[in-house]
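Exercise 7.
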Amino acid sequence: MRFSLRHAMIATLCFSAVAFASGGGENVDPVSPDLWQAGFTIAVFLILLFILGKFAFKPIMKGLNDREAFITNALRDADEASKKAQAQLAEYSQKLDQARAEATAIVEEGRRDAEVTKRSIHEEARNEADKMIERAKREIGIARDSAVRELCDLGAKLATDAASKIVGRELSPSDHERLIRESIDEISAQNASRN
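Solution. The predicted structure, written as tokens, is:
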């Protein structure tokens, strides 16, 4: 493209130089130009083209090449930055997924711990209730046995009083105690057979 642009510029300048050189006020035929002026114009143009090629085209081309290199580097850097950003995005997404998985695991562990604690508390409460029931049963049994003894003692005393009235004599303390023991054993045997 550079080469054809130069040729087009040269041709345009040549034709304009020929037209300018031949126009001296007289009736000019554009097909038959003045060769001396045309040659001089072409020589000036070639010198100008040489000077511009030596001093102007090189800096212009250098500027264009530098700009092209800058754009190429900027595109490459942008592409690298894009790839780096994509890699970081993937890394952050992976870390976010790991954090979500860890959070879910922590929540699940908390639920399991809560369930274990709930079961433990429930089991302890059940054991404590069973102990309280057993203690209450023991206390009831002790109270019942005590009441039975008292009833037996009272029954034995009443029976002894009634027997002494019937027999007409009073029983000795040893006879009285023997009758009480026999009555208690008899009542205890009857209670044991009921349970």
